[in-house]
Amino acid sequence: MTNDELVQGLVDVLGAERVLTDPDVIASYVTDWTGRYRGTTPAVVRPRDRDDVATALRWCRDHRVAVVPQGGNTGLVGDRFPSRARSCCPCGDSITSTTWTSSRRSSTWVPAPPSAVFGSTCGASASTSPSISPRATPPRSAVSSPRTRAGCTCCGMDRCAQVAGVEAVLTDGSIVRTMRGLVKDNTGYDLPGLLTGSEGTLAVVTEVALRLIPDHPYRVVALLGCADLETALAVARRLRHDVSALEALEGFFADGATLVSDSFGVVVPFDPLPPVLLLAEAAGARDPTDQLTAALNDLGDAVTDSAVAVDPAGRKTLWALRDRHTEAIAGQGIAHKLDVTLPPGRLALFEREVRALVGSFEPPSRCFLFGHVGDGNLHVNVVGPDPDDRRVDRAVLELAASMGGSISAEHGIGTAKRDLLALNRSPEERALFRSIRHAFDPAGILNPNVLIAD
Ligand code: 2HG
Ligand code: ZN
């Protein structure tokens, strides 16, 4: 089949307005956010609804055309872009873009567009003048709205426990729907669990029920300085134990905070900056500030610097120092993004070893570390090696795996790590993955380049 025949076939079944072919328009769909991965496609399909998705999938299955389901194109592991490497037909892949919105709502369950599953952030940058008080009792604030926390810095999960129901279209055009929204439902296989985080390899998700968490009226954020990661992790353990209202525990280092500050003018409350920074957020129906500040006072010398904010602008500024790492690092070059979890007790050792490891690579590279330390999850961003040079990726992930860690805490495997899946998954598990994939997609048209190498 030629590209022209492929485009004409899709236009025939969907209508010309649903099939994008203008190279300038397509360009943003075939380059990933990091700039590291690029692909090519003859067409982007923008379905109006699940029937369009079903029509497009059936046609692609019948004609052996590969489909890359794409939401917000925010992936970091080359999992949402078309590549000709393993396309199902010689003329290349087609992308199905699944970006659309749903208007149905209820108070507890909100059907959400698929892009909500694959990544969004709840932290925001602040530019208004912040109010940050060093260990003072700050003014009280009250805000309230339901929130999803999907893929954000609070829970950070692609495979998110808050996904309670899905509707998805299979490659034969049939639709599976588990949207009852029951708290307990043990009726066989857990389809939301299976489909969420499956990197577009099993079906195209067209609707999602998210378990929303009521927002708390009171919220406080503390930024703490520590001499090293070992101490910061001990502080984190104490806060988890002492502050029942704790919602987030994030960690980063002086080099990253300086980069964010220099790049975006975000105010850093400490001078000089301590080597390690821990960001803790607590929230509750009653103000948790006293509980948090009491816990901080008990920490003694372990914390060398601290700043506390309760007003929205102050909180946002403290969060911006953490949240804007990705953007700030992007300004330094194309980063090798490695997203690992370590067992509790091995994170500090990993930090020392990974810095030494990256330091031994040529050309000289910069290694930024930050992440969800409360989950044992560090984002290792390496800037310096050529985007196509994968030696540093392999070395860092081998190190994490050798220490009992995961090579993908939350970003997925994508194309970036498909050759390395064996570091974490046994031959039996990989064979099972293939069988599951085949059961959902016997023709092998869905996102064929990701997750498992041939
Ligand atoms: C975060 O935690 C995201 O900010 C992005 O997962 C991490 O850029 C990264 O490596
Ligand atoms: Zn993250």
Secondary-structure blueprint:
Blueprint: H1 3-14, E1 19-20, H2 23-26, E2 43-45, H3 50-62, E3 67-70, E4 94-97, E5 109-112, H4 115-118, E6 163-169, E7 175-178, H5 191-195, E8 204-211, E9 218-226, H6 229-242, E10 246-253, H7 254-264, E11 276-284, H8 289-298, E12 305-309, H9 312-323, H10 325-330, E13 336-341, H11 347-359, E14 366-372, E15 377-383, H12 391-402, H13 427-440
Parallel strand pairs: 2-4, 3-4
Antiparallel strand pairs: 1-2, 5-8, 6-7, 6-8, 9-11, 9-12, 10-11, 10-14, 13-15, 14-15
Helix pairs in contact: 1-3, 11-12
The structure holds (2R)-2-hydroxypentanedioic acid (2HG) and zinc ion (ZN).
Low-confidence stretches: 85-91, 100-158
Q: Which CATH class of the largest domain?
A: Alpha Beta
Q: Indicate the mean pLDDT.
A: 84
The topology string of helices and strands comes to HEHEHEEEHEEHEEHEHEHEHHEHEEHH
| Overall geometry | globular
Helix percent reads: 25-40%
Distance between the termini: 24 Å
**Rounded radius of gyration (Å):** 23 Å
**Got a strand count?**
15
How many domain units?
A: 3
Bound molecules: (2R)-2-hydroxypentanedioic acid, zinc ion
